[in-house]
Design goal:
single chain, about 250 residues
Length: about 250
């Protein structure tokens, strides 16, 4: 079997402005690579770490992690940039990553934040469980397992992902409670053809941000992983416009 190159966290060090990019559930830093390259070209430094359990050839590694682990990964990402000498940092998160980008704005000193197709208001209108099971089948096939081996484990995995999804839902209320207190710039991007979460949750987030200047963007022809979709160039341009308007301290 040929050697499989697993995705790796990346750090593109360029200009004095730093951006932390947080990937999606079942995703990896590859979710954010095109956006990162677009930012790097415009003199931004970009760091995209991995959430615990992600980026491996064993998809059930994800089920061994929990939201507290992923919050720690977010804090570690900020600490990494601080250690590199960057004080002013913006944080953008895709889907799950947007939950922790928002929490970072609430708990840490962040210049600006962005959520991309992020379920800050998660409801029953989502396709996370079946999507996870398809992800499991795809990854295990790549890893060389037989169809029989893959199917055998699916019922147990389904229970695990349902429990994890509930853990994420239980993690959200304290974050939601503090959204109204956010006063710094907030970027919201939502795909019009989102097949994973209820796209209307983006409007709930916008309405909850009663004190923050909000930059809201709807990409009608995009699906959930908006960073690699057909409108990714428009997204990159909008993110750059938002970042360029932040109050960077470059003295």
């Amino acid at each position: 079997m040929p050697k499989i190159a697993l995705p790796q966290p990346f750090f593109f060090e360029n200009g004095p402005r730093a951006v932390l990019l947080l990937h999606a559930y079942t995703g990896s830093s590859n979710d954010m690579r095109m956006l990162a390259r677009a930012l790097e070209k415009e003199n931004y430094t970009v760091y995209a770490p991995h959430f615990k359990g992600h980026g491996t050839l064993e998809p059930t590694d994800i089920l061994k992690a929990n939201p507290s682990d992923w919050w720690q990964d977010t804090q570690d990402g900020l600490a990494f940039l601080h250690e590199k000498g960057y004080q002013d940092i913006a944080v953008f998160g895709l889907s799950l990553g947007g939950i922790f980008a928002t929490k970072a704005m609430e708990e840490e000193t962040i210049l600006g934040v962005g959520t991309l197709c992020s379920p800050l208001y998660l409801n029953e209108n989502n396709q996370v469980v079946p999507t996870f099971l398809r992800y499991v089948q795809t990854v295990k096939k790549i890893a060389g397992l037989s169809e029989a081996e893959i199917v055998r484990d699916l019922p147990k995995i389904k229970i695990g992902v349902e429990q994890q999804l509930q853990a994420i839902a239980d993690y959200l209320p304290p974050i939601q409670h503090k959204i109204a207190a956010i006063t710094k710039p907030f970027f919201i991007a939502q795909a019009g053809q989102d097949e994973l979460i209820d796209a209307q949750s983006a409007y709930e987030l916008q309405e909850a941000l009663v004190q923050a200047p909000v930059s809201f963007h709807w990409y009608e022809n995009s699906s959930h992983v908006i960073t690699v979709g057909k409108e990714h160039h428009a997204l990159e341009k909008d993110v750059l416009t938002f970042l360029n308007q932040l109050s960077w301290n470059e003295g």
